[in-house]
Design a protein that fits this description.
Strand order of the largest sheet: 2-1-3-4
Strand content: 5-15%
CATH topology of the largest domain: Rossmann fold
Number of strands: 4
Radius of gyration: 17 Å
CATH architecture of the largest domain: 3-Layer(aba) Sandwich
Structural class: alpha/beta
Helix content: 40-55%
CATH class of the largest domain: Alpha Beta
Shape: globular
Order of helices and strands: EHEHEHHEHHHHH
Number of domains: 2
Length: 184
């Protein structure tokens, strides 16, 4: 049976694929395809496109987009998921607040800064932190803003941060999603 994992964007796909590689899991050999939808509002379209015989669906979304996933699953005939437990039973997992937040909490700000420094971007992060709009923000918010700015930065750092995680640090949504799609 083929499994299609629906995710909001390319950074989510990169994180899942990187975690699989770190754990020596060959997603293609396991029949798993990770599809970046270009945003949660596309969930209904992608559920309809991929649902069918011999296709098992799973997914990952941000907390703010959870409602889109619930309504999309209900519309597609997957029942009426009332809460995250119901979503997880269907194979859909929620990042609190988003993937970047999960990774920052997992590694801690100092851990993220070490990764940024190793990637040669610490000067750019420090420059962002000095900007008037950023100075009074919490350092976690500054780091999150940094990860989300710049062309390709979210995808690049999704990979780098997942690679930096110790096994016990893997955020629950990523861990549970990979376990779900590779089980059995």
């Amino acid at each position: 049976m083929r499994t299609v994992v629906l995710v909001e964007g390319a950074s989510d796909r990169a994180a899942i694929e990187t975690l699989a590689a770190v754990r020596d899991v060959d997603l293609a050999a396991a029949g798993v395809e990770v599809v970046a939808m270009g945003g949660a509002t596309s969930i209904r379209h992608f559920l309809a496109q991929h649902a069918g015989n011999d296709v098992r669906l799973a997914g990952l979304c941000d907390a703010a987009e959870e409602g889109w996933f619930r309504r999309g699953l209900e519309h597609a005939g997957y029942g009426r998921p009332r809460d995250r437990c119901d979503l997880e039973a269907l194979g859909f997992f929620v990042c609190d607040a988003d993937l970047e937040d999960e990774l920052i909490r997992a590694l801690g700000v100092a851990g993220v800064e070490r990764v940024v420094e190793m990637a040669g971007d610490l000067r750019a992060l420090r420059s962002l932190q000095k900007q008037p709009a950023q100075r009074d923000r919490a350092v976690e918010d500054q780091v999150r803003r940094f990860l989300g700015s710049g062309s390709g930065r979210k995808v690049r750092y999704a990979r780098l941060l997942v690679e930096a995680l110790a096994p016990a640090q893997v955020p629950r949504p990523l861990d549970r999603l990979l376990a779900h799609v590779t089980a059995g």
